[in-house]
Write a structure and sequence with these properties.
The complex is a heterodimer. By secondary structure, chain A is of the alpha/beta class. Chain A has four domains: 5-195, Pyruvate-ferredoxin oxidoreductase, PFOR, domain III (Pyruvate-ferredoxin Oxidoreductase, domain 3, 3-Layer(aba) Sandwich); 200-378, Thiamin diphosphate (ThDP)-binding fold, Pyr/PP domains (Rossmann fold); 388-467, no CATH class; 468-612, Rossmann fold (3-Layer(aba) Sandwich). Chain B is an alpha/beta fold. Helix content of chain B is 31%, strand content 15%. Chain B has ten helices and eight strands. The radius of gyration of chain B is 20 Å and the shape is globular. Chain B starts with 24 loop residues before the first helix and ends with a helix. The chains are: A alpha/beta, B alpha/beta. At the A-B interface, β7, α7, β8, α8 and β9 of A face β2, α2, α4 and α10 of B.
Chain lengths: 621, 294
Amino acid sequence: MSQPEVIVGIGGAAGDGTASAGNTLVLSLARQGIPSYSYNSYQSVIRGGHSWLRIRFSAKKPLNHGDQVNALIALNQDSLDRHLQELQPGGVALYNGAKLAPSYDPPAGVQLCPLPVPDLAPDSKRLPVMQNTVAVGALTQLMGLDFASLGSVFETTFAKKPQVVQQNVDAARTAYDYASKNFQQLPARLQTTDQTWAQASGNHLFAMGAALAGCKFYVAYPMSPATHILEWFATHAQRLSICVRQVEDEISVVNMCIGANHMGVRAMCATSGGGFALMTEAIGMAGILETPAVIINVMRAGPSTGVPTKTEQADLNQALGASQGDFPRVVLAPTSMSDCFVTPSLAFDVADRFQLPVILLADLLMCEGSETVATEVLDVEFPIDRGELITKADGPPAGEPYLRYKDTPSGISPRAVPGLPGHLHVAASDEHDEDGVLLSDVYADPIRRKKMVDKRVRKMSTILEHLPVPVLEGPADAETTLLGWGSTWGVIKEAAERLNADGTSVNHLQVKTLLPLHVEEITAALGRGQRVIIIENNQSGQFAKHLRGETGIVADGHIRKYDGEPFEPKHIVAGVRDVIGGQQLVEVISTEPGFRTDHPTGTSGAWAGLKVERPGVPAKT
Amino acid sequence: MATALLVAKDFKPEVPPDWCPGCGDFGVLTGLFQACADLQIQPHDLLVVSGIGCSSNLPGFIRSYGVHSLHGRALPFATGSKLANQAMTVVVTGGDGDGYGIGLNHFIQAMRRNINVTYIVMDNETYGLTTGQASPTTETGMKTKTTPLGNLEGMLNPMALALASGCGYIARGFSGQPKHLVQLYKDAIQHPGFALIDVFSPCVTYNKHNTYSWFRERIYKLEDEGHDTGDFRTAMDKALEWGDRIPIGLFYQNPDAPPPLDALDPALTTGEPLVHQSYEIDGDTRRELIREFV
């Protein structure tokens, strides 16, 4: 918190270009060695509505989008009305002064920066989007940065249209100069560094990470917020020789994915909760066929269509319980966007080694949001472990028939892919014997049925050592441990740092490996008699119940959020204080004026509530 | 390895089919043995994929690679498999409930997609494995366990549907005439694209209406009447024929068949199966990918 940072909020209607304005700014600063983290709150409309993009620039790489705003770029009146009141002292509000004016007085210490857009960018009458360029140019100056990097971004963005490059550079430059003459700079100073940062969303990092891990087949049906994975693959299919197909529904998606994996290629698919629901029957098939498969569920707020453009962590139950029957599976939840890059490699290796489905649970926050990643972190060669895969055409030892489902001590049977001489077999979704011949159609064979279930499930007994173990971060002897899973790592980490700085002793544990759970390690980490608070982005505490079921651990307090918006550090800080104060369940909610449909203009401070308490929650027994 | 010519019994496994005695599916299966032998397809180069149902047990009764997948999902599974290794001959088998009921969407999409697989539907106009309920091809008015007053719904016409969906090879056979079937199979497997063979395969246990003799009284061979297999509109006329006379044989083969999907996908145009391609991405390419984010 002590380090300098600037949080920029860009508000507008869908189609106003909030995303491209933000992207320009992010790339411009990334090229100067300044990292950032972006999150966009938007609604499910193609044109109109309200879109609120927050970008946090910080000297140290930010791990969440923060919980305040220092610089507002309002692209329409609605955005100015909503967000002006949220600005911190010392903050600036940039807007087209020829069209917009504040409806109320800004908070004390906030500087209004009306920009005469028609004068600064004469083309703006024909091209209203030029107002974004003007704002970005002016803000660059107010952040105390040189202009050069911004110009270079326009050159990249409009590489094929030199005329447009000049148009944008001119407008931005004029606005930059105008700002230096007319406005005060922001108090925070971000130092440029030599670090090269790449800016990517969790979706893009998933896609590139999978491609670098040997994914040769990607299949999907468009579904927000996972669609960008499909788009990345489609864009790069030819160059990387990856077969990329968009097909009729997620049932077809997952069956094609398993069909391709069955033939020996690494195949992956991704969807969101509704599509994942359609996939569940086939996930069980991958379990009994012992076919590796990697399936990503980018969670959004449910149930059913739910809130398609909002984030949630409420598909854990669905992942744990996907498909009928008992079969081995792995569920992993990457803990940051950067983690989305490395997790597909792990997932493919584990899927191949143990011949089972691996489900990755991510969410809209992480997958549609973006962060800067040091380029050297991405420039890695993933080792590829295909496990016991028979790819050579030499047959099994003479006289011994090949048994696809051989009952081995590890439960893992050497896997021959179709096409090899000497290894003919049928892979059946029916229960089958070691040779693949159906047991399902015999009168009864309890011994062999049990043997085959045991053989498959036995694979889980050695899998834990191959999966990431949760590790306590922060002071080892803290009085309170904050426990989260998946995407909340960064925001919990920052909340913990703030609490420690204020004298509340906390550490935190983030779980990525959700199934199987590292029961011993988690029990040891939480078993010192400290207070345990579970933080999750859902209503019912799906992880808390899972943890209790697997370990018997009952947490002392719960902080939950299911309003569609992600946690911000302040939510967790306030929630922890409430739990320490005796409240068992704290439900937090984003109540900033900008999030309200009934936001009043001309008032400030009246919407500062942070949390609602839910009465009637039974006390822990 | 010896290169002795393959014969039908090379495809016959140790496990005998457990279909009811007299089931139409026996004829479908033995015809397939012969067609594969005639085409000299090595058993390890053949992948037979099915869904669920009596007829979907077929992969267990042929010596080849096989997959017994989910009810209705054989076509997507097979599509993924074919795209992963287009060097394999992929034959998909199933019943009318599996393909025209629960899997209908995939059936239409697979034809539109023109994936190079051969789809054999053992059409017995009933759900056999669940002991005799109405299927999408059950005739209107027919009494079954679930339509005790007679089937109120219309009959799905797979031939017309296939024509409308862009299928490039559309044929119908009768399991009572396995030799005729062998020729249809061979032509279908050699057709470069999706091929459908709907086979009347009587259910001797649960369909007492569409029996062997019922079919024998009605069917006639299109080739005996000089049918023009390259003409779409004539084929549609024949597809709509049902009643006293029912045509079998090749209805339509697209004379200008486009290349199948597995020849068009950018990752597959070199002809090297995906499964044999390198999955490593070199450092220069990797750094180019990273630069897109900078």
